[in-house]
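Lab meeting, item 3. Inverse folding demo.
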């Protein structure tokens, strides 16, 4: 069986393939290349007014790349409706190495200093591959998603891959595209330059997202 290394993992992302585990306690990984792929267009992100108010309220302290391993492990925790996780120890080890190499990133939301929600994913060129998110407080993962989209827009990314469609993603404007169409989008983005923005400074993430949507 071919060993999955960080280098092989990056090569797989370049052609639209990614790994998953069967269960949290199963060390094996398998490759996926879905027939339909969920994509969240960065210039058509739907930002609900109530969520924008939550983002701007400052209820959550939002950072990026400050607790990558903690975010991945939180994403692997059981949750209502999802008692089992595909994130096993090989996944945690592989993506932690990608993070050390600058190819995997996390967004963290904290409430009163504790991790309340977040997400993580992989960047290659101007493509970002969202892997998983979690929420321990209402709206925490949604706030993290708004901050992610703002960072990707600021950094010049062209593609946000969400892998599989959910009602949650569809509400933000995600669409499903056939495999061939996804590969065309990926080919357009994968060799373009982009930089994951760890800091937004004083910029308003909602304003960044809304400006991109209005001018698209």
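The presenter then showed the designed sequence:
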């Amino acid at each position: 069986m071919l060993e999955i290394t960080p280098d092989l993992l990056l090569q797989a992302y370049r052609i639209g393939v990614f790994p998953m585990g069967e269960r949290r306690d199963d060390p094996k990984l398998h490759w996926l290349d879905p027939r339909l792929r969920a994509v969240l267009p960065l210039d058509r992100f739907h930002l609900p007014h109530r969520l924008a108010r939550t983002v701007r309220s400052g209820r959550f302290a939002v950072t990026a790349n400050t607790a990558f391993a903690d975010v991945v492990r939180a994403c692997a925790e059981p949750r209502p409706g999802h008692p089992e996780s595909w994130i096993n120890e090989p996944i945690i080890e592989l993506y932690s190495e990608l993070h050390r190499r600058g190819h995997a990133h996390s967004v963290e939301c904290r409430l009163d200093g504790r991790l309340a929600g977040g997400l993580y994913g992989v960047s290659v060129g101007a493509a970002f591959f969202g892997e998983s998110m979690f929420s321990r407080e209402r709206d925490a993962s949604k706030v993290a998603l708004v901050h992610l989209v703002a960072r990707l827009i600021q950094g010049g990314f062209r593609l946000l891959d969400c892998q599989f469609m959910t009602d949650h993603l569809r509400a933000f404007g995600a669409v499903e595209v056939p495999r061939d169409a996804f590969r065309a989008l990926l080919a357009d983005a994968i060799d373009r330059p982009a930089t994951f923005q760890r800091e937004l400074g004083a910029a308003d993430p909602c304003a960044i997202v809304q400006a991109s949507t209005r001018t698209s």
